[in-house]
Amino acid sequence: MTDAPDLPGAEAAPETDAERASRLLAGLRGDIDNLDAILVYTLAQRFKATQAVGRLKAAHDLPPADPDREARQVERLRRLANDAELDPVFAESFLAFIIQEVIRHHEKLKS
Known about the structure:
Layout: H1 17-59, H2 67-83, H3 88-110
Domain Chorismate mutase: 19-110
Keywords: Isomerase
EC number: 5.4.99.5
């Protein structure tokens, strides 16, 4: 059995607060899912670039870590975080985690 066709002048029941909240929540979660996908693909691209750096360093017997560059990157990321209204402490922690992983990969390439 199908629903009755819309009749002229017939109005849908108004959306309840809970229905509206549920609809808005679904939209926000969709946005978050899209942003998560962007983050994952961006990180994959970043790691591809850092792997190329690691291979170059290994080929030329350069150290896996570059503390001066890391310090510059931390400062740069803090500025970007401030500009983006993101907690710079969180941004710095996030970058530190990524840098540790990059160095680990570089050390593997060197050995």
